[in-house]
Structure formats: structure tokens, C-alpha cells
Amino acid sequence: MKFSVALEGDRVFAFYLKALKILEEHEFFSLQLYEHLGFKPAWSTSFLLAPFSKKVRIGVVTVPCAFVHPLYTGANALVLNEVTKGRALLGISRGAFYESVSQSPKNRLQALVDTLEILKALFSKSKKGYQGKVYSLPKGRALRFRYSGRPVIYGGSSGPRTISLLCSFEIVDGIVVDNLWNPSYVSVVLDAMKKGSPKGAKELVARPFCVVVEEESERKRARKLAIRTLAKYLPKLVDGSPMLSFAGITQEAFNIDEVLENFCAFGNASEIVEQTFKMFKSGVTHVCYGLPLGVNPIRALKILAQKVKPHFTE
Question: Whole-structure pTM over 0.70, yes or no?
Fold first, then answer.
């Protein structure tokens, strides 16, 4: 059982330092930073945090591969892996928030495939090159610096076909499903993973929104925060996903209670412990609590670290 936290690029640097300190003290697996267009670049924040990390992996996730050449992504990931002494993490997906640059890129799935193929070539130091439909890599030495090892790589998707495709790449260590908090949908994901990688051995990471209710007097305020977050992010990250229809949720019949239950770790410490237990029991191997964490995110993170995580042991 692994625990991580994912944060958005909308905070001052001191906030990330405080969060990392808590994760270090309580032995979380990783701190994941969203590389969402229009927010602070996650690479910059990751490199600044790296000297303060001794045990926790630091990673850039949801890299919008339809806009970023994998040579650039791979180079950054390898340098981050160097400065973290082998504790870097990289999350690749088709990306979101493309409207920030007034574009809707085509061939996002092919860009994802080309990105993984080129990362595989870079990390294995292959000189064969790669000819893709969106991205290519010439033959010869692509990176002009020495490197060893590679980061942990997660592929992100909630759709079964894309999940199977991601799992067909040996370089992908695990599948991350944003907003996955419905134990029943886990079986759909696991089936898709098995089709792509019959041998298994890949992690399944649930990365739900998370709002911790610190005091019962704050429950209404926390609920409003959760609803605002869902309204902002859900269309970007889950629109068109079978997770919605699987939960019986449609735009025409949008029940906020059902949305909270299926996509957000919401409640006090005891409630989140119960929800987390159900996710692990269903087959998830790694839970990454996502933004906004709570009305006071640092206090909420301390609750997750001190009152939720200790209930679970390997």
C-alpha cells in the first residue's frame, strides 16, 4: 500500500515546502505536481523542491504530451532523477486545459504513443531513432549529457482502451486514474490493465480529489469547496470518460452527492479511512490524495498523515 499527494501549481513555493516536510516525516511515497497549462510549471517547482527531499519521490504528472516534445520531457525527467538521487516520478497523459492556449490539438492519442516510444529509446540509450506520426527521434545520440537510471513512469487515463494501450508499454510502471474513488469501477480498470499487460506487475493508482473535514462545524464549508473543485476540474479530467456513465451520472441528471461519492475523498478522518480501505480492497495498490485537500490544506494534510495513513500497513 502506497500513499502520495498531488498538488496544483497555484501556490507559493513555501506551501510546497511545508507539504513536502509533512510527507517526509510520515513516509509518503511521492509528491506529484500537476503540469497543467496556465499554472506554475511543475518542472520548476520540482527542481526547487528536490534538495529538500530525502525519501519522498518528486514528480511531474499529467504532462501534456500533445504540446511537449518527448525529448524535452525525457531530458527534464532524467535530470530530476539525478538531483533526487533516483527518486523522480513522471506522469504521462493526453493532457488537459488546452483551451489555455486556444488550441485543441489533434492526434492526442498518437502523441501519447510517440512520447512513450521516444522515452523508451532515451532511457535505454538506444541510437536506433524512432519515426512517429506526431513526434520522431533521429538516429544517433539524442541527449548530450551522461545519465543513468530512469524515473518511475505512470500512464494516466480512465478509459479502458487507452489503459490497455498504456499497459502494453513495458516502460510504464503503473496506471493512474484521476478522480477514481468508485470501488466498483476498479474492476473495469484492472480488466483493461490485464488485457494490455497479461503478466501484470503494474501499479494501479487512484488519484481522487480530496477534501478533509477538520471539524464538523466546517462540513458545509468543506462541501462547498469540494463542489467548486469538482465543477472546475471534472469537465477537464473526466469529460467523456466511462467513469461517469458507469456511476449512472449524466449531465442531464447531475446529482452532486453521487459525484462526491464517486470522484472525491470527502469527509472526516474516519470517513476517509473507510473510503480508502474500500479502494485498497477493490484492487487499488496506491492512493494519491489530490487537491484541494481541505479548507486549510496544510492542516488537512496533517490529518491524512497522522489519522488516515497509520491505519494502513504493508
Answer: yes
Distance CA 181, CA 226 (A): 14
Tell the CATH superfamily of the 2-311 domain.
Luciferase-like domain (3.20.20.30)
The verdict on whether omega for the bond into residue 292 sits within 30 degrees of 0, i.e. cis, is yes
DSSP code of residue 50: G
Enter the DSSP assignment of 160.
H
What's the CA gap between 185 and 205, in Å, rounded?
13
Q: What is the DSSP string of 188-243?
A: HHHHHHHHH-TT---EEEEE-EEEE--SGGGHHHHHHHHHHHHHHHHHHHTTT-HH
Give the residue carrying C-alpha cell 489530490. Answer: 290
Amino acid at 161: R
**Calpha distance 46→44 (Å, rounded):** 5
Helix (H, G, I), strand (E, B) or coil at 292: strand
- The predicted-structure confidence for 102-117, as pLDDT tens digits, reads as follows 566 678 899 999 999 9
Q: What are the C-alpha distances in Å from 152 to residues 21, 25, 313?
A: 21, 22, 22
- pLDDT tops 60 at residue 292: yes
CA 79, 290, 308: angle at the middle one, nearest 5?
Answer: 110
3 state DSSP class of 87:
coil
DSSP 103-149: ---S-HHHHHHHHHHHHHHHHTT--S-EE-SS-EE-SS----S----
Task: Classify residue 309 by its DSSP letter.
Answer: G
- The DSSP bridge partners found for residue 178 are 207
Task: Name the residue ranges covered by the structural domains of the chain.
Answer: 2-311
Q: Angle formed by the axes of helices 70-83 and 42-49, to 10°?
A: 20
| Cα-based torsion angle of the residue sequence 251, 257, 262, 266 in order, rounded to the nearest 10 degrees | 140
Report the C-alpha dihedral over residues 89, 263, 26, 63, rounded to 10 degrees: 20
